Amino acid sequence: MALKLGTRGSPLALAQARKVASALESAQRWPAGYVEILPFTTSGDRIQDRPLADVGGKGLWTKELDRALIEGEVHFCVHSMKDVESERPREIHLASVRPRGDMRDRLIGANSIDELPQGAKVGTSSPRRAAQLRSMRPDLQIVPIRGNVETRLKKVEHGEVDATLLASAGLKRLGITGVGTAIPVETLLPAPGQAVIGIECRTDDHMVQSVLSTISNGITFAAINAERAFTRALGGTCHSPVAALAIFDDGQLNFRAQIFSEDGTEIVEDKAIIDCGDEKTPAEMARRMLEKAPASIRSLFHPA
Ligand SMILES: NCc1[nH]cc(CCC(=O)O)c1CC(=O)O
Prior knowledge:
This protein has helices at about 10-25, 45, 50-55, 65-70, 125-135, 150-155, 170-175, 205-215, 220-235, 280-290, 295-300, and strands at about 5-10, 35-40, 75-80, 90-95, 105-110, 120-125, 140-145, 165, 180-185, 195-200, 240-250, 250-260, 265-275.
């Protein structure tokens, strides 16, 4: 029996799907050649003419894949965890995460944020990246930019924008090396789940769960569970300006988080050393941060 893998059809999504298929095959958990990759077009892929935040709605990157999984058209789906909402349907279970890649963002078009020319036009549709850039450089002109990684790189090359930010991990998985400058996480704290590939299957499919668990990374799992518990308690979506990162250090997690107003003038941040598996502390941190946040931040979140 072929194991059917559901994925988006973008070059990055397909590259990630192939990595997961080969991990399963080389772990000998599923015979070579027997993972069948089925690409799907999601709402996020279909809507290209406007920022997804304006479209509204939840799960634009996963809706069609979720349906295919629940209805049994595929056995599992491979996702960039950054694009997966923190609230998931109860029929769907996160069975496995691959070891986290480079979690930094890369700046394309300048050597550093400081070196961007006065008033430079920076293309990003990420509310987090926009707020972070505005907080450091209020003079920058932030413009929405859509399309896959290659399209965005071309827009910088052709001068449509002066610069953009892209995830290091995505560039590397596409085999694009040597472009831009990696920005330290102390300067640009990444999105929750950045650089993590996750694999979801049906909650009641214990056979597939056990196959997938063999290629899972426990440390990365603990990190994204903390980051996602934080986002869940905030009531944040991929349209909310939120950054969170858990880094494994000496048996514990060094957890840092930030929430922003859209214009980046207001930032609330916090950090804590937490135990692996502790989802309560990040959730409490989220509630405390929202309590002390000004209305310009609070209005962007919808805690339960
Ligand atoms: N929002 C699109 C998206 N989703 C995941 C990645 C990169 C790979 C990752 O972070 O796992 C990207 C592109 C980017 O932000 O540059």
